[in-house]
Structures are given as C-alpha cells and as structure tokens.
What does this fold into?
Amino acid sequence: MTVDLFIPCFIDQFYPQTAFNVIKVLEKAGVTANYNPEQTCCGQPSYNSGYWDETKTLAEKFIRDFEGPHTIISPSASCTGFIKNYYGHLFKEDDKNFVSQNLLKSRLFEFSDYLVNQVKFIDFGARFPHKVCYHDACTALREYGIKSEPRLLLSKVKGLELVEMEDTETCCGFGGTFSAKFHSISTAMTEQKVEKALATGAEYIISTESSCLMNIEAYILKNNLPIKPIHIADILASGW
It folds into this structure.
C-alpha cells in the first residue's frame, strides 16, 4: 500500500525528525510513504489572517501537488481539518477546483486516525518508559474530530503511563496568529495549560500538533520547567 505524505510547515521547518518518524511508523504498518518535495503550505495561516485570494493560490497548488489516486496522510489534524473544512469555501464558485478539492478531501487523513481507523494497526512495539499527559489540540478535537485514536495508540506503548490533565480540551494559547496578535492572553493560556500538565506529575506533554507543541515548548524553555513536549509520532517510533 502506498500513500502520499503531506508534511506541514511547522514540522518541515522545526521538527523534521518527526516527519522521518511518521515514515518509520507507516512502514512498520506495511505502508509505503511517497513524498513530493514540491509541496508547500496548505494555506491555513494566510486564510486565518484574511488573505483569501492568496490562500486560494496556495490551495490550487496543493491540489496539483497531490493529484492522483493515493490516500494522503499528514501528522497534523490542524492542517487536514483546514483543508477538509475550508477549501470548499475557497472554491465554491470554481467548478473545476470545487470537484478536485472534494476528491482530495475524501483521500486525506490525519496520521493517528489513519492508523487506527483505516489500516487498523495500533501496536508498533514502541517502548517509552515515562509518565505522560495528552493535549487535545483545538483543531484536532473540534475541526477534525479525533480524541480516542491517539489515546488508543499510546495505550499500546510499553512502559508508558498516560495520565489525564485537568481541562485537557482547553486551548494551549497558540491559535496560529492569535499568539502573535494577542501575546499576553496567549501566554496566560499557555501558562495555564503547562501548569495543569505539571500538576499530573507527567514528564512529557504529547499532542498530534507540532504547532501547539512549539508554543508550549517556548513557555517551558523560558521558565526552565521540568516537562517536555513531544509529538505522538516520535513516541510510536521509539524503542524499536
């Protein structure tokens, strides 16, 4: 089985090892990942900032970059949720691209959703002997709709103890450009999220979203706190 791999901007630029771990995990599940090096941003940041015409240009390129019959996998529910929910708005008066984006939408899956619900491969023999908590990213939970899938995958990791933090569904304060436009509010939200995680005694905060993890990590490093953020793909690829 071959899939096309969509690696979002944050992972490509700041967490490339996570992308390699996605490939490692997919291969363990019997899936071959094809990567198109011409791929770029899906357009979510520009769309959220009100630059819809510019976003449409990026979306048209995205559709061209992922033409073909293969399923598309991405280690980000934020980007996949954006494509699934908002590309239709961009192309509602563009018949050709409206059809193309609908076909693409049906082929696009977030990483953990794909593993659990499509290939039904959940135990990778991973080992991670640490106490962890899981952060439900806003877009992953509310726009894409995953909650149980990451937890099911983590339950199969040997040595891993998953504890739920209070208010796990509350935003971490990133929100894309929100963290730049409303820095003080964003920082207060991040502080609250990290404090709730620390209260569990966890050593790591896990999420499906590298953008959230980058925001959380900045606060942790600035305040020299004893907890680390990590993407679920890095957990699933550990210990084997």
